[in-house]
Design goal:
It contains 2 helices and 8 strands, in the order H-H-E-E-E-E-E-E-E-E. It is α+β, with helices and mostly antiparallel strands.
Length: 127
C-alpha cells in the first residue's frame, strides 16, 4: 500500500509540473487562428540583406516581444526567453507583417549557427 501511495504521489507531482510547463510549451506554437496567416507571410519572406535567400521556415519564425536598449531593438527568442539584438540589416522595410506584431526569424540557441543569429525581423505596428 505504501508503494502505491508513493507512485501516486510521484504521478501527481509529475502532472503538476506538466501543467506548469504546458503554457511555455504552447508558446512554441502559433495561435491556431494565425497559423495560415503566418504561413503565407513566412513562406514568401526573404532576407532584407540577401533577397535571394529565404528568411526561414514556419519553425524558425514567430511573433515576438521587443524592447529597446540604448536605442537598439532587442527581440525575445522563444526557446530561452533571451532578448537578442537585432542587426539593422536584418530589419524588414519593404513589406508589412501580417498582423501588426513584431516577428523574428532566428535559429534556436543550441543550433550550429553563431550565438544570437537573426535571419529576419519585422517590427510590429504597436511598438
Amino acid at each position: 500500500m505504501r508503494s502505491l501511495y508513493k507512485h501516486m504521489t510521484r504521478a501527481c507531482v509529475a502532472a503538476v509540473i506538466m501543467l506548469a510547463v504546458s503554457p511555455a510549451a504552447a508558446q512554441h506554437r502559433h495561435p491556431p487562428q494565425d497559423e495560415a496567416l503566418h504561413e503565407r507571410f513566412y513562406s514568401t519572406w526573404f532576407m532584407p540583406d540577401n533577397p535571394a535567400k529565404s528568411c526561414c521556415n514556419k519553425a524558425d519564425c514567430y511573433p515576438t516581444e521587443i524592447k529597446y536598449v540604448g536605442g537598439e531593438v532587442y527581440a525575445r527568442r522563444r526557446e530561452d526567453g533571451k532578448y537578442i539584438p537585432i542587426p539593422p540589416q536584418k530589419v524588414e522595410h519593404n513589406r508589412d507583417n501580417p498582423d501588426g506584431r513584431s516577428h523574428l526569424c532566428a535559429p534556436p540557441p543550441n543550433s550550429s549557427y553563431p550565438a544570437d543569429t537573426v535571419f529576419c525581423f519585422s517590427l510590429g505596428g504597436g511598438a
